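Example record used in the benchmark description.
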Amino acid sequence: MPMESRASSPIAAPVALSTDKTADAVQIADAMVSTWLEIDAALRPIIGQGGVAALYKRTLYLTAPTHAWLASTHEGVHAPMDLTTLKGVLAQQSNADAAAGSRAILHTFNELLTSLVGPSLTERLLRSMWANSFSGSPAQDSSP
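Model output (structure tokens):
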């Protein structure tokens, strides 16, 4: 996949808000789990639990070569999404590694979903999640 500049991608916003210089690895791990729960809530009605789990596992698999500590989060996993393991692994990293790994995971997920359904549909599917991450209040729908 081409490495586009997606560091400012809205999907990374929930973790970015928690990865400033004062955030520790536990806070970053909490933000990452929260983000995956939002992804699950947004996509499960459309692609089902199995589809979300497949995207989650594939995302971790694709991210693990650059963050080797992620390998244990997808190897031999039989649960749909083992967020407890992900949280534990992230919380054990240095603050910088947890932040970099979280950003890489979300970047990879965004690229993977975009490659499957296109940028427009990816944005539409995750719009409510993005809107909620930028403001404390629900987004207003401007569609007719």
